Amino acid sequence: MTPMPSFDPVNTPLEGTLLMEASAGTGKTHTIASLFVRLVIEHGLPVERILVVTFTEAASGELKERIYARLGDTLAALEEKSFEEAFSGEMAKRHGKSPEARRRILAAIRNFDRAAIGTIHSFCYRMLRENRFESGLRFDAELLTDAGLLRQNAADDVWRRDVASLKPETAARLLENLTPERLMQMAGRYGAPDLQLLPEGSFRDIDGELQELESRLKKIWREEGASLRILLCEDKALSRSQKKFKLDSLNDDLLNLDNWISGHGSLPEKVIKKLTMTNIRKETKKNQPSPEHEFFDLCDYWIVLKKSAPSVHSKNRALFIKNLVQAARLRESELKEKAGVLTFDDLLLRLRDAVLEDRDGGMCLRIRELFGAALIDEFQDTDPVQYAVFDAVFARAGLPLLLIGDPKQAIYAFRGADVFAYLDAAKKSSNRYTLDYNWRSDPELIEAVNLIFQKNPKAFVLEGMEFHPVKAAPKTREILSDPANVSPFTFWLASSESKMKVGKLVPMALGAVSDEIVRLLSGGRKGDIRIGDKGVEPGDMAVLVRSNREALQTRNFLADRGIPAVIHADGNVLDSAEAKELLPVLAAILHPWNSGKVRRALATGIMGFSMKAIDALNRDEPAFNRESSFFMECRNLWQEKGVFPMLSHLYEKGGVLVRAAGTGDGERQVTNLLHLAEILHSAEVDEKRGPEVLYRWLERQGNPAFPRRVEAPLRLESDGQRVRVITVHRSKGLEYPIVFCPFIHSATDVLGQSNPEKIMAFHDPELENRLCVDFGGKADKAREEDLTRKEAMAEQARLLYVALTRARHRVYAVWGSINNTKGRACNWILHNEADAIPGAGQVKQDMEALSKEGVLACLSLPDDQHLQLPHQDESKDSPVCCTPPHLPADPFRITSFSSLVAGKYMENPADRDGGERPVRKSEDPGGDIFSFPAGARPGNFMHHLFENIDFTQATQQFEPQVRKSLYLFGYDEAWLPAILEMVERVLAMPFGEEGFSLKDVGLKDQLRELDFYYPLNILESDAISKWVKKITMGACDHLPPQLERLYFSRSSGYLRGVMDLVFRHQGKYYLLDWKSNDLGADYGAYSPENLKGEMALHLYTLQYHLYVLALDRYLSFRLKDYDYERDFGGVAYVFLRGVNPENAPGCGLFFEKPPLERIREMAGWMLAEGLLNSAG
């Protein structure tokens, strides 16, 4: 590797094209500010003639601030006043006596509002607008910032035109996994005009060819079948010793052929193979002439066509998709031309075409007149179109073109960035430099990262991308003090005799991370572990993940340990729950006369109406009209004054913010609602969107199929007081004192499930690294797969580099010999393995060799100690939205079973699985159902799962829903087999005397999550306790302490509950409750006797009597001639972990039909007057 010269921001000449590689932490923005100052002083360029381009509005805003500050600091140095930056002092030494230097800096400061610092798109738009004749831009052209709807319309048009006419059998083959939405996504991602779309060629009707050939075979056989039969049966050259041409076997085959010819059977492929000329020659006696006929040759051809059909079908599908994508892009262009609009991509293409059309005149000259130099930030995220513009305008004219970026951090290919554009520029540039000094990290941590990426000389895979080590910048740093004397970089190695399953590794890794965070935070609270003079706090740490799923899993894991954590990966308020709930509210405001939309809006958390309240409105027309009138009032305000005044009115008069502030996550909800109001106001003003258009705009922001141009990061100051869980992509450009990387093994298979069409995107070295996209069906598929996977591994290497360079003081990374990690960058970088998974021995040997250098530690992954972070009084840092003060007791309240057994009233409680056992964490994510975690979250997971499956389906059809539920609740997919087995057993379990199972119960015979309220009598707690003791007598050795805490206010009110499932079978109604309680690690723990004790222990016996009473009332009102004894089948409590009807019959199920007399007795003291007459 040839060392790259260091860039000196003070002395390196700024002539021609300079390419500066700015490794992580080397002060890229600092360098750009210095270059700007030098262009002002030494090149005499006014600020408006220095073009500074970056890729986001946020980045351009930061650059403006930093450059302006550097100009001021330099002026202070020139005037011999105090200054902060060493660079300013160097400028003063060189130019301090020059009045012209001071004049130029002063002019730059005064005229800084003219500075051309912005995004690439703003630059293109300005150039096209100011040079309409050279660019051909229409005078009435408008910029369309959100092309999603137009692109979807284009895809829909093409779909209707090209897909609707397909024959059903052709459509089934061509359209697998393909939808108009997917077409729109592909047209957006793969529709750029410079892409090489593959395969080439034309559609081949292989099915038509086969049909035509079969018709010829039939025709010949009809006309010459008799003579062919004689030839085959009597020709003495054919060997009759083999079974194929023995007469009895041959006659059977020819009879099958006759049946097919006459239309009474399917084509006998076995017979066709026998009658091929190839087979006949094979079965001819030695030195004998083979019988010959056109029919035999055509049979050979039929076999060839049949064998080629799958590959032809594959290529046809690839051609079909390619043609659809091209047609969709063409249609999009037509729609844009018709509407007179341009997208951001159009701006780039128009400007590129204009500058390349006449490289030394026209547009190029106009831009050179405006700008004498260009500074391109984040150059690794450019693409060939952007590079072509700057190369043509500045490089070809010899003007300063200063390109700064880091190809090792090029991780945004999914946004259109192309690292090969950087590599192409690097090849052409004779002036390449590196920024040598890292200003972010501690020296020992810098050495460790250098060591890791120098282990493999081709760590970053691609030709032309090399690793250049950096040095620690000479600066004063805060010190991380820790009595444990932990290495600045620690690899935790998962020890295993064989390759470890990912499902087993992840909870072990998260357990180790959680324990270490608890240790650091506990030490920080005591003052033992400090950064500088401050104890370590949650906001000093980040856990880096690859996917949103991993983020959710990590956040939940930390939360279970009491660690305050926040997900930063999905940090866009447009993805928030408040954004989703605001949509139906806005729909009701737009259509206040639509009662359905009004009810849907009222049912949202934003408006806060319960189902009972909405039901009451349904019976109170004046009250419902008042709510509709409020929405009409908001509608008028929106139309007259705009969305912001309307939302202010809604939030205030509708009590939205007050209601949100009173929730457990009130600070977040209020912040998001206010932020959404700002975003909608900006979207309304910037694009002149009316109410209906603005509503559709917000609706599209939540649809991943539509590209989003709105940067709307979540705002919450208290997020800084939590551990950040953040994706690597999101973390680029950020830094944290302490970083954990438990998922460096993780990567998406580029040709796996996330890419159902198996589309291959790669740069072809035979086409000068032009980006190619193959939709399938090429002959050199293996080569293209290799190139695709090679580029994927290269990007993984870059992601790993970004992850390991975020920390200032310390990094923890988890690694080992891990299953299903073939082709992963860690194997390549740490073990030089591109196509194999290193064994546990090799991993240990390689990592120990790495640690011998002394700058990093390789330790065994610590066992999970299940440490909990003790609760700390947070009154000092509590959010502004506080819990409202207690109000006087309401004589009319709503309570539930959960609140009764807890000894207090609870508003709107959820009756989920009781039990006060501590949460248990599994150590084996791939284990059986007994090792599945226990606690509230697992219980909610199981309830959610059974609420969303159709019991009558085959087990394999549940798999997508199980995967979805595991993802939603943050559990590893390794649990899939155990959960599927549990579901299968539960649905096969026999019920009652009839012995039916839930598989026999269709959706039309079910009511899920049946919510009920009924009015309570004035109750006495002591009397109820005595009644419960009587009905649970003998069920357990000791009556539960909850019995002593039963609380019934001496006031009226309502009892609320939610029945998990009410179902009907053969005319009888049953009540079912799902229970996820963890009673033990075998089916014996769920025996009928043990379940009786569990039912009594948690007062489930009282619960199901309350629920049976409610169901009895419900059925008596809904069924004519209802009879409890005849129509009610019983109540079932299903303890999901313990069900195994085949090997442990009776386990896991508590089933009873309470006596009618008991229900009548309960109704007498429970129900308020008015319901008593119908009880029983």
UniProtKB/TrEMBL annotation:
ATP binds at A22, S23, A24, G25, T26, G27, K28, T29. This is DNA 3'-5' helicase. GO terms for cellular component: cytosol; exodeoxyribonuclease V complex. Residues 907-929 are annotated as: Disordered. GO terms for molecular function: 3'-5' DNA helicase activity; ATP binding; ATP hydrolysis activity; DNA binding; exodeoxyribonuclease V activity; metal ion binding. It comes from the Bacteria. Signal peptide: none annotated. It comes from Desulfobotulus alkaliphilus. It holds the Pfam family UvrD_C. Residues 443-733 form the UvrD-like helicase C-terminal domain.
